[in-house]
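WP5 quarterly update. Target: N-acetyltransferase domain-containing protein. Source organism: Amycolatopsis decaplanina DSM 44594. Length: 315 aa.
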Amino acid sequence: MNSHAIAAGHAERLATVDALLPEMPALEPVEGAVSLSATEGDSAAAGLSVRTEAGPDSVDSPWRALVEHRLEARLTGPRPEAAFDALLTRWDEHLKTVAPPGDVETAATVVRPSRDSPGSAELLRRGFAPVLVIAVRPADRLAVTGPPATPGVHIRPAEADDLETAVGLELELQRYDAQFGSVTLREGAEETIAADLSKHLGRENPTLWIAELYGRPLGMVRVQFPGETAWIGGRVAADRVGYLSSLAVAEPARSSGVGTALAAHAHQVFDECGTEAVLLHHALANPRSTPFWYAQGYRPLWTYWQRRPAVHGSR
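Structure tokens (predicted):
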């Protein structure tokens, strides 16, 4: 079965799984990538393994291993999990030739539609874990009056004097998420975060807001508007896509309503500019963020399955 036939069967199968998934065309070979395929009876799989690198001081480095081998797959037939299992066998054979055994800075990652469950058991058996989720919130137009006020909470655009507060909140967030495998704390993280956040301070069109609780700055939310989200907009069947980059609340303000107020503010801003869907990443194992985001109207759309090291063993 050729890759286009597999892609057509994959698309037909996923159309019954999740209406918010985008179209997924056949996998076309790209320079440096490795094409893989497998057949199991009447079922078939096609895959593309792509290797990427990130510098330890890059903005992206906390959210990934420095070297990542990512497999994108298309599955079709009555037993897609069997074809996927055979595809994973071929991918493992490839990884053993290119990934240093036991290197925790080399990861194998598979990003799959969250509701496409066939193949999950096969990933678990091979040592993969569901680590990260892209969650989606379809547009939900608010009333003209906006979200209800939270007693004691005031939300305002971030200014230059808020940099230290914002950096501290982001560092606290990363330290917490590092416990669940979705973040790696890097040397020089404070300087990297400061350089990134400083771009969002004092903007005419704000993308970063501070929440004050009875006058104390104890929370923040950062967003990307449609027009800035081409890097992730293709993950959902919508034209105008927003991205909620981060939401952080200081420990003393947890369960005070600050986080809910910040999320409601971000959603109002997204709705006002005609956003059709909002995406965000969150650590799946995080016992705080997972229930919080789903209470705000999000649900899983894509799940990142990761094995780190990519190949187990010693150097």
